[in-house]
Write a structure and sequence with these properties.
By secondary structure, this protein is α/β, with parallel strands linked by helices. It has helices at residues 9-30, 37-50, 61-71, 89-96, 115-121, 141-151, 208-217, 239-248, 252-270, 309-318, 348-356, 368-382; strands at 54-58, 79-83, 100-104, 126-130, 154-158, 166-168, 174-176, 183-187, 201-205, 222-224, 227-228, 276-277, 300-304, 357-360. The chain has a seven-stranded mixed sheet with strand order 1-9-8-5-4-2-3, with helices on both faces. The protein has a three-stranded antiparallel sheet with strand order 12-13-14. Strands 6-7 form a two-stranded antiparallel ribbon. Bound molecules: pyridoxal-5'-phosphate (PLP). The site of pyridoxal-5'-phosphate has 15 residues, from helix 3 and helix 4. This is DegT/DnrJ/EryC1/StrS family aminotransferase.
């Protein structure tokens, strides 16, 4: 059996190196390192894939979120509601822009932001909601867009973990994750579902004016060369990274499929194990969903009940199985984001999830032997 890795980037590279290598070489030969033709080609191809009017590439996913908020003109003191259970980048940029982060609880089943908690957190100062499509599955966007409409709020989707996932409306209409809110942000960090070979990110929107504003912000607030109309940043996707991404984009659906297949194989064994709760796929429509792509499994995350999570992690590690705990501390308990206004009773679910979650190896190269070894190791540990 091949050594089990949390993420196997080498195996994936070996498969596509005949396409990726010449593409990188081409950028080097023509020396168009910044804003070269590869960046434009990738942008166009991603717009088409997502069926969104504008993709604005940038330097990383954290920048993408920050720039989206800058583009919407959010001002110091504006309150931005987001999930307590996510990677810190989401709340970091809110704080960095001197906006006021308002963290709220998530759902126990799909780990995504809780709709009632959003409703409860709205004040006259609330200006935006940032749902995070955690672990590869969309938050309840239909409900979130309804709340946003009723209260005149912006919705910024943190789509760093769900690129390529579909969101299905109640009536069966499907759209791509990240294209539902006013603006979406994603990351091309190497381990993400569409990862480059360094840092990268992008912003999506269907709004022409917002796209124009954002294109200036990523480039020092310039709309005309050496005319700086707004305070911007320097955040660009390298041409070399665009070359990698453009070579990988045609494989994204197949990569996500490989993750879904691995997830089903994990499910088949683990769903009947006492003390283990396998990840939920939220079904939002009434249509038959045999070939559902609503969850793209950036992470395959179990919850354990009545089993000590940390001892299980240690046991798996000893058997050569890496696993992750995403996330071990709720954001409202992090020193940087603690706030006396928060009330512990409002974070029942996150406080519980941080003790229960365990993410198993998940990538496009997992094979049957590895999955069998992982599931057998877990099962025999739990059954003693
Ligand atoms: C990875 C990630 C980010 C940040 O992306 P970077 O490219 O690493 O800056 C933001 N939000 C979430 C939920 C992420 O998983």
């Amino acid at each position: 059996m091949k050594k089990i890795q949390m993420v196997d980037l080498k195996g994936q590279y070996d498969d596509i190196k005949d396409v990726v290598n010449p593409s990188i070489q081409e950028v080097i030969e023509n020396t168009a390192f910044i804003n070269g033709p590869k960046v434009h080609e990738f942008q166009k191809n991603l717009e088409q894939y997502l069926n969104v009017k504008h993709v604005i590439p940038c330097a990383n996913g954290t920048d993408a979120l920050q720039i989206a908020m800058m583009g919407l003109g959010l001002k110091p003191g504006d309150e931005v509601i987001t999930a307590d259970f996510t990677f810190a980048a989401t709340v970091e940029v809110i704080a960095l822009l001197n906006l006021t982060p308002v963290l709220v609880d998530v759902n126990e089943d799909d780990f995504n932001i809780n709709i009632e908690a959003i409703r409860k957190a709205i004040t006259p100062r609330t200006k935006a909601i940032v749902p995070v499509h955690l672990f590869g599955q969309c938050a309840n966007m239909e409900a979130i867009m309804d709340i946003a409409k009723a209260h005149n709020l912006y919705v910024i989707e943190d789509n760093a973990q769900a690129i390529g996932a579909s969101y299905t409306y109640k009536d069966g209409t499907k759209v791509k994750a990240g294209t539902i809110g006013h603006v979406g942000a994603t990351s091309f960090f190497p381990s993400k579902n569409l990862g480059c070979y360094g840092d990268g990110g992008a912003i999506f929107t269907n709004d022409d004016d917002l796209a124009h504003t954002i294109r200036g912000i990523v480039n020092h607030g310039m709309y005309e060369r050496y005319h700086h109309d707004v305070v911007g940043v320097n955040s660009r996707l390298d041409s070399i990274q665009a070359a990698v991404l453009d070579a990988k984009l045609p494989h994204l659906d197949q990569y996500n499929k490989a993750r879904q297949i691995a997830a089903s194989k994990y499910d088949d064994v683990l769903k009947s194990v006492e003390g283990i709760i396998t990840p939920v796929r939220t079904k939002r429509c009434d249509k038959a969903c045999d070939n559902c792509d609503c969850h793209v499994f950036h992470q395959y995350t179990l919850r354990v009940k009545g089993v000590d999570r940390d001892t299980l992690v240690k046991h798996l590690n000893e058997k050569g199985i890496p696993c992750g705990v995403y996330y071990p501390i709720p954001l409202h308990k992090q020193k940087a984001y603690a706030d006396t206004r928060y009330n512990e009773a409002d974070f029942k679910v996150t406080n519980q999830l941080v003790k229960e979650v365990i993410s198993l190896p998940m990538h496009t190269e997992l094979d049957d032997d590895q999955i069998e070894f992982i599931t057998t190791t877990i099962t025999s540990y739990i059954n003693g």
